[in-house]
Amino acid sequence: MSTELTITSDEILTTAQALRWEVSGDFHEHLMEAIYTDAARIADRAITLPEEKPRFDLDRTIDRLVTSRLWGFPIMILLLTLVFWLTISGANVPSSMLATLLIDTIHPVLNSFGANIGMPWWLSGFLFDGVYLATAWVISVMLPPMAIFFPLFTLLEDFGYLPRVAFNLDNMFRKVGAHGKQALSMSMGFGCNAAGVVATRVIDSPRERLIAIITNNFALCNGRWPTQILVATIFIGALVPAYLGGLVSALAVVGIAVLGVLLSMAVSWGLSRTVLRGEASTFSLELPPYRPPRLWQTIYTSLIDRTLIVLWRAVVFALPAGAVIWLSSNVNIAGVSIAEHLIDFMNPFGILIGLNGVILLAYVVAIPANEIVIPTILMLTVLVTGVGGVGSGTGVMFELDSNMETMAIFQAGGWTLLTAVNLMLFSLIHNPCSTTIYTIYKETGSAKWTAIASLLPVVMGLAVTFLVAQVWRLVVGLT
User: Fold this and answer.
1) To 5 degrees, how large is the angle CA 299–CA 305–CA 309?
2) Global pTM?
């Protein structure tokens, strides 16, 4: 049972008349004075009279620089380069410390523990040399860069700069049929593609968000930086005098990253005119005022909401990867390991595209985490060639402290400059890691779009490396 409440107009007028006497007599004057004072203050800030000297506005002064057609892009590239440099340089020491703790210290202890309790060699190898070692590599390589990159990126976001990046790139992305905010998700992808996929939530249009998700893999994530830097240092930097080696190597890696941005735009253009046909939507981008970053909140958000969640997903997928890597290298069929059978099968096709069977198998078993590509390549090369090294012939992942030792193993595997160049290209243009694939499925809820986002880069990577290999061999043959 309910009672309907009705109020007549006479009751409203009577209540208003009673309340009027409770308000001071000069209330209306105070209200009007406050309104006109605020209006005068706003107008005084927005309008400059001809005879007045222009007022200094810090926000507008900064915006004249960071959003200008002349300085906007150089400043943007400089800031992002600074973030990348701090990430790469700053991650070296903690990565080395983690590797020393998890691999050089704990791993032998685990092996000794297994031997002391009489654990069978195959169980000890499976658990400690396979599952544990792969997970340790992922943590030692992945955690420090993310712990540096995400806070720096969040500081730029909190300061108010990232909306200016979207403003600068909006016109370029709109011309290729994508959304201007894709610049933000692409930038986040440089830290981790899985986080970049999640960052596409800022895009309201489902069509344009799909484009951003599919193309985010072309942003060079931190898991691929070690491969790019090592190969560029050993092969590209060696082409010039030693004092120029570091600069040339860095430029080669930056060139690969820029190529990824161009590929992202090219694929966005193709998708927006085929399976995701449509016009780029317009959006009102309100540039927020600049404000001092909230340091502790930034650290919490970056480490808890981004770094640890992404790292946990990578660890979950690295566990089975370590098991597969150890089993394929230590289980024999007709006296030959499964890995060697697969390498022999893949090798003709790998050589055709300027790579080899070892590299192709390494990328197959390293789908859970890009961080274990180089250790897997070294392990498989030693397994096939028998060249001496740490863990030689045991099917155990390892890395070497000296680039010369690494170069010797690569050369024993038949690597050339073409192999190095195509590895850098394939590292950029290949399938997302399993963490990113899982994230794509969670964000889209579609197996079809997850498959497209996973297989399209593979097809492109194979096509690009095949084309480069044929042109390279043609030019070398003519000379």
Assistant:
1) 120
2) 0.72
